[in-house]
Design brief:
The chain has 205 residues and is mostly helical. Helices cover 51% and strands 0% of the residues. It has eleven helices and no strands. Helix 2 (22-28) packs across helix 6 and helix 7 packs across helix 11 (191-200). The longest helix has 17 residues, at 2-18. It is globular and about 45 Å long. The termini are far apart. The model is unreliable at 2-17 (pLDDT under 50).
């Protein structure tokens, strides 16, 4: 019991130490604003909403973009624009930016009625016959994901961005997902299904 208590204490200490400084992140976020908005609410549908996203997830993506740059795309997440953005960032910078955007308030999205028949079915139940896992299993009933497990919040996200990422996973152009789970799911989705899911998750809040 004493060993468990000590382990939990050390883990808590590490977690607290690893967290970024949101105020410092705000000061460093000026270069992010052009694409993602000053508060992380991107007005450009191709660029993701960062506001309210899990800090751990945001930090991982920044590190993966940097790894993609330093490995020539062999590892991490390869994106020419983001490679240029993360190039000058230190680990502390990335932690601070993740902390800042994580505490911003995301704007509410919406779910078009036309996306519900296909999108809702796949999100809530998947497709057992085709081996497609339900999205709700990892991203939750409201699309909030889970901070500790690293599953991102997708509710309120731009449909265009969700669509582009699902296609990237399906086409193996993005492979920084945990245990390849998103690649496996996306590989079994049609263009029509990807479109429906992308639109559906916007209003899960």
């Amino acid at each position: 019991m004493k060993k468990l208590a000590l382990l939990l204490t050390l883990l808590a200490s590490f977690t607290a130490y690893a967290q970024g400084d949101a105020e410092a992140g705000k000061a460093k976020s000026a270069t992010c604003a052009a694409c993602h908005g000053a508060d992380g609410n991107s007005l450009i549908a191709a660029n993701p909403v960062l506001a309210g996203q899990h800090e751990k997830y945001l930090l991982k993506q920044l590190k993966d973009f940097k790894l993609g740059m330093t490995s020539g795309g062999a590892q991490g997440r390869n994106n020419a624009v983001m490679a240029g953005m993360v190039a000058p960032l230190s680990e502390e910078d990335m932690s601070d930016l993740a902390a800042y955007f994580a505490i911003q308030t995301p704007k509410a999205g919406s779910t078009p009625e036309s996306s519900i028949p296909v999108g809702e079915q796949l999100y809530l139940a998947g497709d057992k016959e085709r081996g497609i896992a339900a999205c709700i299993a990892c991203h939750g009933p409201r699309g909030n994901g889970t901070a500790l497990s690293g599953f991102p919040k997708i509710s309120g996200q731009h449909a265009d961005y969700i669509k582009s990422q699902l296609m990237a996973f399906r086409d193996k152009q993005r492979n920084n997902d945990m245990n390849g789970m998103m690649q496996i799911v996306a590989s079994k989705l049609s263009d029509k299904e990807i479109e429906a899911i992308s639109l559906y998750v916007g209003g899960l809040h």
